[in-house]
Design brief:
The structure is a homodimer of 389-residue chains.
Chain A (H helix, E strand, L loop, with lengths): L13 H12 L5 H8 L3 H13 L3 E3 L16 E3 L5 E7 L3 E7 L5 E8 L5 H17 L7 E8 L2 E3 L4 E5 L4 E4 L1 H9 L2 E6 H12 L8 E6 L3 E7 L2 E2 L31 H4 L1 H12 L6 H10 L2 H25 L3 E5 L10 H11 L8 E4 L5 H16 L5
Parallel strand pairs in A: 3-6, 6-10, 11-14, 14-15
Antiparallel strand pairs in A: 1-2, 3-4, 4-5, 7-8, 8-9, 11-12, 12-13
Helix pairs in contact in A: 1-3, 2-3, 4-5, 6-12, 8-10, 9-10, 10-11
Chain A binds a DNA duplex (30 and 30 nucleotides) through helix 3.
DNA sequence: ATGTGTTAATTAACTTCGTCAAGAATTTAA
DNA sequence: TTAAATTCTTGACGAAGTTAATTAACACAT
């Protein structure tokens, strides 16, 4: 059962949620258009929209152009982004990244904070301090009530618990509650990749797609899937583990116990290992490897191509099984995506089956704040939905 | 938009559908229990159930045992399987398999029919004849109004069209309409693997699982996935192509254009090819290969083990990405599953990630009629749902 | 400028679905 | 026989959305 009800937002019915979500994601839209797209009657749209307008979340744009032809001009509904602000924080093993966003999840302000200690109390205090710093950076205090927190690992959003976090070494920590006490903000916890996916679904490349996937490449390789508008969670809590899809029986052993997993070939660590082995330079750093590969070093280019190939195969597996409309590939590892992109696309095109090939592959390096923005997006959504995944 | 409304069944509201589905799948249940499990009020259950009872689809079991303790004894609701019958037909390239089932999708009667010609008219006539034969085999005529048809390929259930069937060489055939005219029965068309999955979801091992998968092994290797209670269809019509998940970059070329696909290693055709190559006997048949493998021939056992390994890797990919509660592996290829099973399970266990390993693997050879039963199950469902996938 | 047609939004009456609370039915236990 | 427990039914009520009619705001032609 849910831990708490954030409350204030005028979500009273499914229709209200639908209407608001549509305006939030599809920019300004007239009521008639909303009715058409959602299948509701236009009367229902009028009713659903009113409380949002009265509460200041939506406005009518009594604006200019109506389009050609006769008839009463529409007054499209638009979101008022500065009606409320949200704090999003991503916790990694090394530091905290925090942002303040508006209702559209646009970042207004961001800070980093290095994390010395993994003790729960210490992290909670550090987050609280970061929140204070963020809120004081602008005129955000009075209009901010929600905090979103993202971290990698096994997280239960419903109960606000961190069930298991390998990076922090935590088990069964009721983090949401602790942070609520420490900050006074209604707090929502979510797995980091899922949070990123929510951000993408509502405010990014997932808008309008009923099914899509987000894949992150970096120290680990993970993904989250949206099918029929809902996040796939896995019956046993595990899903989207594209990093552990086996693609090469003769490949290297993976830390998960398997063989030839995508992650064992294309994670940052695996790439460095291979680069060192191929060149015979045990001290080689990632920066050097990237630099020399860009300079044309054939051995190192081959290393990156191998990684790109592995990712492409993993994507093909995902797409052949799911048939998503779009896939966004992102993460720290994509900062060097000039070294990957061609190979990923080539391999994917060769292995995707039939019409699944039409799935759009968006490759995009991810600024660090995106993770924190994902956390904020989860907070935004928590205000405007009624408990769904 | 839907082509037609089957109608007669008293599905008036979402609650009605929910209640009926629960009774259908979870055997006799008392109203209170239904209310508890669905989250409806017990008053709503009473109201929803009444029309079904009046129409003869459900009965009250004023039966014996109530369980211990005081209180008014429950009168559990049960389905009346013989209230209505359904015809299910599976069309392959070579023949038709037809069954009559009751409301529970239990097979009452079945026939085969060899298909000489792939001409549309000829197939329609053959199906109509088979339907007549099936209905005349028992007292089914007056109580049968729905026909379900399953075939492999790209099928649009909504419009009742066969968009593309490689086996039959059809494109854009409005088969449902043609069959409706020829048989007088309300006809539902569905892809064969999806149909099998529906049968499993409502009447088999998928009952009660919110997410699960069905994998079929045979001439081809396919699968269908159910997530959050809904079938995954793929944005471009392709999904569940586990047969074309790449698992071995050094493996054989696949007819799809890819390399090392599961199907290129573990389909019936691929197994025979390998068996012939390994033994150096170009005339070797599947029967002989199976016989000698069972007898202990190490080379042939190895061939089957390789196939089992490929299937296990494909399953691991599927499970790591989806995290289903259960997977049912089935199909003609599984008739020899004594040769596969161990290897499938071993490989799967080695490659499944974390808790995903807890996913239950059900290996089960599939009698031929199961395909036709799937078709019938789709027909049953078409009567009792309101247009969902 | 002024009616006329056209599209957008609102309003009002009604339908439908389901909840709630009270009570009827039917058993066990004292 | 009465009390307690439990299931099922009933009817009043309320929430959410629909349809149909009305009002609003414009473009355009005369």
């Amino acid at each position: 059962m849910p831990r708490r009800t954030p409350g204030r937002a005028p979500i009273t019915s499914p229709a209200a949620a639908t209407v608001f979500e549509l305006v939030m994601t599809q920019g300004p839209v007239s009521r008639v258009e909303i009715a058409r797209r959602t299948g509701l009657s236009s009367a229902a749209v009028t009713k659903a929209a009113r409380p949002f307008i009265e509460a200041g979340y939506l406005t009518e744009m009594t604006s200019g152009r109506t389009g050609p032809g006769a008839g009463r001009p529409a007054s499209p509904l638009a979101i008022r982004p500065d009606r409320e602000y949200f704090v999003g924080i991503k916790i990694t093993g090394d530091d905290l990244i925090g942002v303040v966003t508006d209702l559209r999840a646009d970042v207004r302000c961001s800070y980093h904070h290095t994390l010395g200690d993994h003790e729960v109390d210490h992290v909670v205090a550090a987050v609280a301090e970061l929140v204070t710093r963020l809120l004081d950076a602008g005129d955000y205090r009075g209009r901010t009530h929600c905090l979103g927190v993202a971290l990698s690992g096994d997280v239960d959003r419903e109960s606000g618990q961190v069930r298991y976090s390998p990076f922090l070494g935590w088990r069964g920590v009721p983090l949401a509650e602790l942070l609520e006490d420490a900050t006074g903000l209604t707090t929502t916890l979510e797995n980091d990749v899922k949070a990123l996916t929510v951000a993408e679904q509502w405010f990014g490349d997932g808008v309008g797609a009923s099914s899509f996937a987000v894949v992150t490449v970096g120290a680990g390789i993970g993904s989250a899937l949206v099918v029929n508008g809902g996040l796939v969670s896995g019956a046993y809590g595990v899903a989207g583990e594209i990093g552990h899809v086996p693609i090469s029986p003769a490949g290297p052993a993976c830390h998960c116990g398997g063989t030839g997993c995508v992650e064992a070939i294309a994670s940052t660590g695996a790439i460095i290992d291979r680069a060192r082995a191929t060149t015979g330079e045990p001290e080689l750093t990632m920066e050097q490897a990237v630099h020399r590969a860009r300079g044309g070093d054939p051995k190192l280019r081959e290393v990156f191509a191998t990684a790109g190939n592995a990712i492409g195969l993993g994507l093909a597996a995902l797409v052949n099984l799911f048939g998503p409309e779009r896939v966004v590939v992102s993460g720290e590892g994509l900062e060097t995506f000039d070294l990957f992109e061609e190979q990923i696309r080539t391999t994917f095109a060769a292995q995707a089956f039939g019409s699944a090939r039409r799935c759009v592959l968006v490759l995009r390096p991810q600024p660090f704040e995106q993770w924190a923005r994902g956390a904020a997006a989860v907070a935004v959504r928590s205000l405007f939905t009624t408990g769904q995944p």
